[in-house]
Write a structure and sequence with these properties.
Elements (H helix, E strand, L loop, with lengths): L2 H6 L11 H16 L12 H5 L5 H4 L21 H12 L6 E4 L6 H7 L4 E6 L17 E7 L9 E5 L8 H5 L5 E7 L25 E10 L17 E9 L19 H21 L5
Parallel strand pairs: 1-2, 1-4, 2-3, 4-5
Antiparallel strand pairs: 5-7, 6-7
């Protein structure tokens, strides 16, 4: 096979990998800046837009090296969210109320709730006493996210949507959440078992498994983070396990037939998704070369 034929056989979306050297240098600079606390994410006085700009994917997979896991949860968040899924969740919320209010039951530092709120819903975050504080304790957008002193047992405000993302390990908050009879329940979890403790990484295996019959699953998807997502492409970065997280949206009886937004038009992704796209493309390219018989 000559070079011209080889060029034609290269999938067009691999072209972006020609800029890998420049991309890698910029990415490593972002990672180092974050680890040295030079990134605006660490400054609660900065606008949320500035704090999430150029936030490295690495910071959403790994916690900072100086975090003490005995006292603090993830530095930023337990997983990397995608813009398209936040938009779909918000779209579903708008099907059940003109100005939907979302109760973020495990709000932690407000990062995930703020991203959801920026898609056109109001989010009120409550504290779960089983949660440790994030290393960045306050990371929220005041324009769309507010904190409440309530906890999961004593929510004292009206809301339309229950948002349960990464229920604290070993705890099942399903009965308390269901008692408020939200119009929608959004449940984000993983089935991964923590090898050190033998417990599910999120909640319990019973969480949201047996809901009252008036609730129906109306939308669901899963996002898998490949094993060694970053390490496989950039060996200097830390290895990581494969992890699949699941998103499930349950609707109460009057809203079983809502439009769940499965075909929303594309929108600008979060900055960390650019790094995710490059990593996934590079993994695909390596697999492509292996299939062609090249040792990579």
């Amino acid at each position: 096979m000559n070079d011209e034929t080889s060029q034609r056989n290269i999938p067009p979306h691999f072209e972006k990998l020609r800029d890998m050297e420049t991309f890698t240098e910029a990415m490593f600079n972002r990672i180092v800046a974050f680890q040295e606390r030079l990134h605006p994410a660490w400054d609660a006085g900065k606008p949320f837009d500035e704090r999430i700009r150029d936030l490295p994917l690495h910071a959403l997979i790994f916690s900072n090296p100086d975090r003490d896991p005995a006292t603090h949860a993830h530095t930023v968040a337990p997983f990397y969210p995608l813009r398209e899924e936040m938009r779909q969740i918000a779209h579903c919320a708008r099907q059940v109320a003109e100005q939907p209010v979302v109760c973020d039951f495990h709000s932690r530092n407000g990062f995930l709730g703020s991203l959801l709120g920026r898609e056109g819903v109001s989010v009120i975050g409550i504290h779960d006493p089983a949660d440790k504080p994030n290393q960045i304790p306050d990371f929220y957008d005041e324009a769309v996210f507010t904190r409440s002193a309530a906890d999961y047992q004593s929510v004292d405000f009206a809301f339309d949507v229950a948002f349960s993302a990464w229920m604290p390990a070993g705890h099942n908050r399903t009965p308390e959440i269901v008692q408020y009879r939200p119009k929608l329940i959004v449940f984000i979890h993983t089935d991964h078992i923590d090898e050190s403790s033998g417990r599910p990484q999120t909640g319990t295996m019973a969480a949201f498994r047996e809901l009252p019959p008036h609730y129906r699953l109306v939308a669901a998807w899963s996002i898998t983070r490949p094993r060694d997502l970053l390490h496989e492409i950039w060996p200097d970065l830390t290895p990581s396990i494969e992890e699949t997280r699941h998103v499930k949206i349950y609707a109460d009886e009057p809203w079983h037939g809502i439009d769940v937004g499965a075909e929303l038009p594309p929108a600008t992704p979060y900055d960390w998704e650019n790094e995710l796209d490059m990593a996934l493309t590079a993994l695909e390219a390596k697999a492509h070369l292996r299939d062609k018989g090249f040792p990579v």
